[in-house]
Every structure is written in C-alpha cells, then in structure tokens.
Amino acid sequence: MKTIQWFPGHMAKALRVLKEHLKMVDIVLELLDARIPYSSSNPELDKLIENKDRIVILNKKDLADSQITREWVDYYNQKAPTFPVNTMTGSGLKEVMEEINRKADQINERLQKRGRNSRNIRLMIIGIPNVGKSALINRLAKRSSAKVENRPGVTRGKQWIKVKEGLMLLDSPGILWPKFENQDVGYRLAATGAIRSEVLDEREVAYHLTRWLMDKAAEELKTFFDVEIVEDPYEMMLALGRKRGFLMSGGRVREEQTAKMILKEFRDGRIGQISLERPLDFEKKHETAVEKNVKSD
Ligand SMILES: Nc1nc2c(ncn2[C@@H]2O[C@H](COP(=O)(O)OP(=O)(O)O)[C@@H](O)[C@H]2O)c(=O)[nH]1
Ligand SMILES: [Mg+2]
Fold it and tell me: Which residue ranges does the chain devote to CATH 1.10.1580.10?
C-alpha cells in the first residue's frame, strides 16, 4: 500500500514543502472526496492559501450520492467555486477548466492594469492521500501515468507541465495530512481508503461502515447483498459474511474476511452511490454547540 502513516515529523515536512510550492503558484485546486468532503478537508489549508485563487473539486463523484453532492457544492460555493468531478472519465473537468481560464484572465488583467505584461499562470493540486491528485495531474497533463509519489518531502527538480498556452501545472501535488479530529472522521477516512484501514482495526472500520450504510443506504445494502436489514450493526455485519459463505468449520462467521469484503465492495462503488457525510450533519452539530453555549451563559 502506498498510503503513508502520518507522524508529526511527516506533517511538519509536508507543511514545509507545501509552503515552498505555494509561493510559486497562482491558483490552488483543492481536491476533496465527494463521499466525505468534511473528513477529507484539512482546515490548515484555509490559512495557508488565504491570498490564493482557489477552486474546490469534489472528486470521485461517481461513487457519491449525486443529490448530496449538490448540497456540498452549494455549501462550498460560499467559500470558493466548487465542481463535482470524476477524474477517471473526465466528467466535470470542462467546467473546472472554464473556471481556471476565467481566473487566469482576471490575474492577467490585474497585471496589465499595473502596467505589467501578462505571464504564465501557475496551478497546483492539493489534497489528502488517495483523493485522486495523481489521476488529475495525469488528466490535465494528458498523459497516462505520473511518476508522482505520495511521499512528502521527496526532493527533486520541480517540473512544470504545460496544460495549455499560458497555463502551467506543478508536477508534484501538495499532500495534506488527513485530520484525526475524532474517531468518526478516522473511520470514514479509513472506510473510503484515504488512510490504511490496517492502522485501525479493519473489523472496527467495517463495523462503523455497516452502521452508516444501515442508516444512509439501507435499501442499497438490502438489494446489493440480498439480505434483510437487522437492528444491530454487528449482527448485520455477520449476516453479510454468512450470506457470502465466509464461515469457519463450526459455523462461526470469519469476521476479518467479512470486514475486508464489505470495505472492498464499498470502495469499489458496488453497493451503490453512497455519501457518508452531508452538510446538514455538521450544521446541526454547530447549532447544538451554539445552543449549549447559550444555556451555559
Ligand atoms: N471511482 C473513482 N476513482 C478515482 C477517481 N479519481 C481517482 N480515483 C482512484 O483513486 C485512487 C487514488 O488515486 P490517486 O490519483 O493515486 O490519488 P493520490 O494519492 O491523491 O495521488 C486510484 O485507485 C484512482 O484510480 C474518480 O473520480 N472516481
Ligand atoms: Mg499520488
């Protein structure tokens, strides 16, 4: 697996490299996972790119619930122009390119007003591991594979890829560390493959995923596995394993094999187009916190 573990040293190094690269670019493309925009975002970035042009890309839209993705587009549009994209097919990238061109023109107009020549506009892509950075670089560069690595701090000559006349893309993406804000965020990052599920216990990751699927996608779960939904997530998990025949001699369900299977089916998008987060989940929390503050006053 190519995903690295994030120790404080890694984060410090990633941050240092990111700051260096940011000095050179005009426009930042921030990649989020459309299934978990909240958990795949890193609030540190807001401070780092305050004075940059920014475009938010909700990637892997093919794996997410399109209605909920629209809610997230509205939500993030308040901050920066936001587009749902499927980097595998290129769907949504035309709109992203139009926005990049618009921003590039504005930057050059500003330069000209100050009596300076227009110049190449420089872009970079930023996101947590596995969100699709390399895939997007390859697509914008119109090539099939990048030698881009997931390790932060890999020193090598910076390369600029020509996207089109006047538009250059930094060959190495900015890698943000995933946030470990609370357990649910960690489990959602693991369920979608952003952090190695082995870092946590795979059975636990699959347990929480099953719990969310029962809550958010019960119909899909029922149809895809051809099972009845039961009340308890753990029992539900066992039922899915049993259904697939993952049994030991004696009849006990092979939990680890079951967990791996559930995670794989979900990550491959086979259970359905399922989003694990929607904006409302976080607005509610915020309101509750505000209410609590009011009460304790
Ligand atoms: N289904 C789907 N998979 C994607 C999409 N974009 C990237 N991927 C997959 O996500 C995985 C991680 O992509 P990669 O570009 O290596 O991510 P990086 O770690 O951010 O550079 C790969 O298996 C890609 O094929 C997308 O839009 N849809
Ligand atoms: Mg990569």
Answer: 201-281
